[in-house]
Amino acid sequence: MINDIKAEAEKKMKKSLEALHSAFNKIRTGRAHPAILDSVMVNYYGQETPLKQVASVNVEDNRTLTVSPWEKNLVPTIEKAIMTSDLGLNPATSGDIIRVPMPMLTEETRKEMVKQAKADAEHGRVSIRNARRDANHMIKELVKEKEISEDDQHRGEDEIQKLTDKYIAEVEKMLKSKEEDLMAV
Prior knowledge:
This protein is an alpha+beta fold. The strands form 2 sheets. Strands 3-4-6-5 form a 4-stranded antiparallel β-sheet, with helices on one face. Strand 5 and strand 6 form a beta hairpin. The radius of gyration is 22 Å and the shape is elongated.
């Protein structure tokens, strides 16, 4: 039973890391990366559709993304969607290819993005701790119903804590890497 609770807690903690990873992908650095445009939604025949489902996004060089729509008539729609997204990007169209240059980041912008990364990391830590709290609560319920002994309870809680420490350390590692990436000029 404790192993099931531990497996469930680990699954929740992994999901927290995945959510943090996708949040970090949305924070743009000075370099071009296709994941920056993952949050852009395009009006495709009256339906809000993710950009990557109506076009291919590639890195042209360090500072430029190219978006190649699969249907030529989508070029102005995609361009407008990128402009109106909250990413602060200004696309330029040449024929049926949209180029998205990455603007240089100012020191102030970099610091704001580091703050955002730290806030996202804190959300990740909180959600990992919530998974720990839920698992410990389930273990205590098993003790209350006399399905496991108190020794098993302590052993289970120790295992859950080790898992929590492992995932919190992973969050710290991801945050440190993102901060270095953001502050690199």
